[in-house]
Specification:
Blueprint (H helix, E strand, L loop, with lengths): L4 H18 L4 E5 L7 E6 L9 H18 L3 E8 L12 E6 L1
Parallel strand pairs: 2-3
Antiparallel strand pairs: 1-2, 3-4
Helix pairs in contact: 1-2
Length: 101
């Protein structure tokens, strides 16, 4: 399969739009791939997020899996949940990361 940056961008944009739809109010950003994947998408859930993530993760996983099988693009999605505990010693809150592959 021939891969192009234009086609990859189209699929990354699709995944970002889907993540924004599934997690309203979340910040969705793309960062350079860490290892062998083609793209990394980071979904930062809002501070007041009270919903679950299992159904949304499954939908994102299903779509990224379809893209991988059909077109060969490996797009990894990280979902960062805000930590509900108090801020750490340095004043920052830690997040819990969940990867969808």
């Amino acid at each position: 399969m021939k891969k192009t940056k234009k086609e990859l961008k189209r699929y990354v944009d699709e995944i970002c739009a889907l993540a924004q739809e599934l997690f309203p109010g979340a910040k969705v950003r793309v960062k350079p791939p860490y290892e062998t994947e083609d793209a990394d998408v980071i979904v930062e859930l809002p501070e007041g997020w009270r919903g679950g993530t299992a159904k949304q993760r499954k939908l994102l996983w299903r779509r990224t899996w379809e893209i991988l099988l059909d077109k060969g693009y490996d797009i990894l999605v990280f979902i960062e949940k805000p930590n509900r505990s108090k801020a750490g010693s340095n004043g920052t809150k830690k997040t819990k990361k969940i990867a969808v592959r």
